[in-house]
Amino acid sequence: MCMAAAAAWWAAAGTAAKTSVAATAVSAAASGAAMYQQAQGQKAMHGYQAQVAANNAKVAEWQAQDAQRRGEQEAREARRRGAQIAGRQRSTMAARGLDLAYGNPADILDDTAYFSMVDQQTARANAAKEAWGHRTQKGYLLGEAAAQRQAGRNVRPGMQAGLTLLGGAAQVADRWYSYS
Fold it and tell me: How confident is the model at residue 56 (pLDDT cuts 50, 70, 90)?
């Protein structure tokens, strides 16, 4: 339909037809604007969620580092306790006149050193397991952040608004031709 024919139709059309076509056009424009705003909100939400996940990944790494520091501190404490026990054992056995290099006294001191070493290794192993758990969580969170960033890039506000406007234009045309 050319512009002259459209102008002629508009002049000849009744108020109900004009109102129906105009209302459909306004509704289509409003829907397009609303779709644009909605898509902008989705894009912003994905960006926000990506940043939250990235921040949580940093916290998970800090927790892993803290677990390792605590494990080392606990291992030092286990070594200190073992040294204290061994010192008391040596002084007690020496006060009784026992030879610390042979027999039961030497075995007792060896056992004390062994269990102190086991306690130290247990503290380090437990800390390593806890740190591994935090780093696993960090990896998950970094993946989530990347997925949210990609989802945000996939949101196209202009395209979604354009498609909505195109659908609205089809409705306007349908109304127009139904009154023609």
Answer: very high
35 vs 14: CA distance, rounded Å:
32
Selection from 140, 144, 155, 136 nearest residue 50 by Cα: 144
165 pLDDT band (50/70/90 cuts)?
low
Whether the CB-CB separation of 36 and 162 falls below 8 Å is answered with no
**Sequence spans of domains, the chain:** 38-155
pTM of the model: 0.68
Q: Give the separation between CA 26 and CA 31, rounded to whole angstroms.
A: 8
Q: What share of the chain is helix, strand, coil (3-state, %, to 5)?
A: 90, 0, 10
CA of 166: how far to CAs of 25, 29, 31, 82, in Å? 11, 10, 11, 79
How many Å apart are CA 33 and CA 40, to the nearest integer? 11
DSSP string covering 60-85: HHHHHHHHHHHHHHHHHHHHHHHHHH
Tell which residue, 53, 56, 70, has the closest CA to residue 131: 70
Q: Judge whether residue 178 has pLDDT over 80.
A: no
Judge contact between 148 and 56, C-beta under 8 A.
no
